[in-house]
Specification:
Chain lengths: 277, 470
């Protein structure tokens, strides 16, 4: 059993942060790796990236957006409640190295995933620009942490309620125009990552993205998470989740993420009707 | 003498009562219902108690078959189970899933003229009888040696090693990647063929004996083999199975609705997706399903699809009926349940709609040529024989490979070119000191009983090592 030791709602309650006691995982985890969590006996195995870890206290932090039944069920867990199963660390860690100027682009809850990577890149002595975005001001998360983790932070909102009015790709373009950027890391909704890659391809800048394919085991035994990268089938859970963005077939990923649309709607409805929210 | 034997042969082989095909094809309850005491004793009566029992020749763990059957005949079921336990710790499992027709029953002398003794059914009967009526006896604890063994993987080979070594007085901890123990017995083989409670009850027995179980531990990620030694383990056994799904590498394979058998069966069995939405994990409920391959895994996938409400399920196999590797009982059961066989047919491409969902599969007809390395006749495509099979779901069950997750993180273990661990056939020793391996990760996907047989050899070797050194 894995106890929630701290819990916080963010972005108007659409996003939840849990600090979970998982000493063995906390000791091993590196930026970019994820865990799989299962709330209870009947639960689904849900992959979430670790937004932070504290090896000394034995704590891992997850930040997740409520998008369906399982994340809603997670949200219903209080401080002191437990996840039945937490498995990890899974996936390959982000390859962090000193390159010079780098840009970290995070959208939505992708900002949470981006945070440890941004911090890691800065610690290695890179000049880190961070660009984070959300639909509106209320949905923006981790602004302060990202500010501390980067050398320069740019904030965008789709509706202009805060920071730059527009998409993260606009700001990214400006930076690419002005700076000698060696690497871009883009993490967020699939369409955002796709457009980030489109922009960086024009400037010929190497770009990493983190793919959130649907998963079951997270250890390479089922093939559910397969994605096409450079024309080849790869398993996001063991070969990734990070891949060279210019090689990724984003359209296929977007389609595959819809595989259980009907079932997800049924499960979420039932959960809400049963007073689960 | 001859007359006596002749008289015995007159008792026909006692069939096991089963759920009717029309009923069971839509439920997940076990298909064969088990012998009654009377049926079991009657079947046991048929055994000739051969002096040189040919039935034992191909049993990978050398169960004393006439020995346990004699006890059944006398109505001493407790005596029977103890006889089996001398060699086989998982009889309730083996009685259900062993390929008896290729081992004990295939060699039984009665099979030369008529029908062999139903050894598998009898094994299953005594194991079930003991579980349901026995006193739950467990062997007495022996003196502890203080030596610690880490067993990686809780499939049949890992469970065997754990059971053997705990009985020899060592401290055993099993590390399992999944949230539940049992390996393929739990995530692969469906409930209707092997009820999960049987597996859990076997694991419980091990826990009662003192085996510690650490689920959610992916060795290679959560902890490495070297770290296990740092934590104070004296020996490590690797029994991680052959859990890498094989795909066909044909166009369209990433369409929605195309599953690896591993994914399909894991969702259905381990995650209990057949109970969705009571359980949260979803699974596609195809109406018109194709399954590629013709082994046990393919039969299990096809029969699961039928139970999940398919109108039509077709097994598509590139060789002929003769070459189908599944247990004969599974093929028979599948046919009874209305599963169709498309033989000498190989897929070349999946076709999907605009949303990326599979709608059909393009195939080629095959003919059989000369025998290949495996001794089976090689399928050769017939030119110009392309045709389309409509389908809304496909399961690829054409084999499995070695998952590199653990071996990649442990450099000094030598691997075959296919990624399987190289282990000494007599002892299971790997090229790394104090590390053993066995089961499917050494042999490639084989059988439960072979995995157990490998585990048995390894536990003897580990015990020797802990006493005398490498
Ligand atoms: C490696 C990885 C890291 C991730 N990290 C984060 C994170 O840090 N924060 C965060 O908010 N989200 C993260 N996600 C996405 C998160 O796993 C999904 O949002 C979650 O599974 C949705 O479950 P649900 O039941 O609430 O929603 P559902 O209604 O089931 O689904 C909503 C959407 O989530 C996707 N999804 C459903 N089931 C799964 C599954 N088993 N695995 C992956 N995706 C699924 C589907 O594409 C679906 O469209 C990550 C995904 C992956 C693969
Ligand atoms: C669908 C299906 C049907 C089958 N039907 C039959 C049948 O009817 N009769 C028969 O005899 N055989 C059958 N088999 C084959 C048989 O199940 C296997 O040969 C046998 O289970 C192999 O045992 P094992 O102990 O080597 O590995 P497995 O049973 O594969 O167990 C390995 C375990 O190790 C765990 N693991 C893997 N990697 C790690 C890691 N890094 N860290 C920790 N744990 C890890 C896995 O999660 C798993 O639990 C079938 C197989 C399948 C897939
Ligand atoms: S070969 Fe057949 S008849 Fe002879 S001992 Fe074995 S099971 Fe009995
Ligand atoms: S989630 Fe099963 S292989 Fe990646």
């Amino acid at each position: 059993m894995f106890e929630i030791v701290k819990r916080q709602e963010m972005a108007d309650g659409t996003v939840v942060m849990n600090e979970i006691s998982a000493p063995q995982i906390a000791k091993k985890a590196k930026p970019g790796q994820f865990v799989i969590l299962k709330a209870n006996e009947t639960g689904e195995r849900i992959p979430l990236t670790m937004a932070d870890t504290d090896p000394e206290k034995g704590i891992i932090t997850i930040i997740y957006q409520i998008v369906g039944k399982s994340t809603a069920l997670f949200k219903s867990l209080k401080t002191g409640d437990c996840f039945q199963d937490v498995i990890g660390p899974l996936g390959k860690p982000t390859h962090l190295e000193k390159l010079g100027t780098v840009v970290c682009v995070g959208g939505g809850t992708g900002v949470a995933v981006m945070h440890p990577i941004t911090r890691g890149l800065k610690e290695l002595g890179n000049n880190v620009f961070a660009v984070i975005g959300a639909r509106n001001k209320d949905l923006l998360i981790l602004e302060d942490k990202m500010k501390a983790a980067s050398n320069e932070l740019y904030v965008c909102t789709d509706d202009g309620s805060y920071g730059h009015h527009g998409f993260v790709t606009d700001v990214l373009k400006d930076i690419l125009e002005k700076e000698d950027v060696k690497l871009v890391v883009g993490i967020g909704p699939v369409p955002m990552m796709k457009f980030v890659c489109k922009v960086t391809a024009e400037y010929n800048v190497k770009t990493f993205v983190s793919l959130n394919a649907i998963m079951v085991d997270g250890t390479g035994m089922c093939g559910c998470c397969r994605v096409t990268v450079g024309g080849k089938t790869r398993f996001a859970c063991v070969d990734g989740p990070e891949f060279e963005g210019h090689e990724v077939d984003f359209d296929e990923l977007m389609q595959r993420l819809q595989a259980y649309k009907e079932e997800e709607a049924i499960a979420y409805e039932q959960f809400k009707n049963a007073g689960g929210l | 003498m001859a007359q006596k034997a002749g008289k015995k042969e007159k008792i026909p082989r006692q069939g096991m009562p089963e759920q009717k095909p029309e009923v069971r094809r839509r439920n997940f309850k076990e298909v064969p219902l088990g012998y009654t005491r009377e049926l079991a004793m009657k079947e046991a009566e048929r055994c000739l108690q051969c002096k040189k029992p040919s039935c034992m020749e191909d049993c990978p763990v050398s169960v004393d078959i006439p020995g346990f059957i004699k006890f059944i005949k006398e109505g001493d079921f407790s005596g029977a189970i103890h006889k089996i336990w001398e060699k086989n710790a998982l009889p309730a499992v083996c009685g259900r899933v062993c390929p008896q027709e290729m081992q004990c029953e295939g060699n039984c002398i009665l099979g030369k003229k008529g029908e062999p003794v139903a050894i598998g059914n009898l094994e299953r009967f005594v194991a079930d009888y003991e579980r349901e009526n026995g006193k739950g006896d467990i062997p007495e604890k022996v003196e502890r040696t203080g030596k610690r063994v880490a067993v990686v993987g809780s499939g049949p080979s890992g469970l065997t090693v754990a059971g053997d070594l705990v009985l020899k007085g060592h401290d055993v901890t099993i590390f399992e990647a999944f949230h539940k123990p049992g390996g393929v017995l739990v995530y692969g083989i469906p409930e209707f063929r092997l009820p999960k409670d049987i597996v859990y009850s076997e694991v419980k027995t091990l826990e009662k004996l003192g085996v510690k179980l650490e689920c959610n531990n992916v060795v290679g990620r959560s902890v490495s083999v070297d770290e296990l030694f740092e934590q104070g383990y004296d020996a490590v056994y690797i029994g991680v199975g052959a859990g890498l799904p094989s795909f066909l590498n044909i166009p369209g394979e990433n369409s929605i609705g195309v599953y690896s058998a591993n994914e399909y069966l894991t969702r259905a069995n381990l995650m209990k997706a057949y109970l969705f939405p009571e359980y949260d994990t979803p699974i596609a409920r195809g109406k018109n399903v194709v399954v590629l391959g013709a082994g046990n895994v393919a039969m299990d996938s096809a029969r699961t699809a039928m139970r999940l409400g398919a109108d039509k399920v077709r097994i598509v196999y590139r060789r002929s009926r003769q070459e189908m590797p599944a247990r004969s009982a599974e093929i028979h059961h599948a046919e009874e349940e209305g599963i169709e066989f498309y033989l000498l047919t190989a897929p070349t491409r999946f076709i999907s709609d605009d949303a990326g969902r599979v709608i059909s599969m393009e195939c080629l007809k095959m003919e059989l040529g000369e025998p290949d390395d495996s001794g089976r006749r090689r399928p050769i495509p017939i030119e110009g024989s392309e045709f389309e099979l409509e389908c809304d779901m496909a399961v690829i069950a054409v084999g499995a490979g070695a998952n590199p997750l653990l071996t990649q993180s442990t450099e000094d273990i030598e691997l075959s070119k296919w990624g399987y661990i190289i282990a000494d056939p007599d002892t299971g020793k790997t090229t790394k000191k104090a590390v053993w391996a066995g089961g499917d990760i050494v042999s490639g996907q084989a059988t439960v009983i072979l995995a157990m047989g490998a585990g048995r050899k390894v536990s003897d070797s580990i015990d020797n090592y802990l006493k005398w050194g490498w």
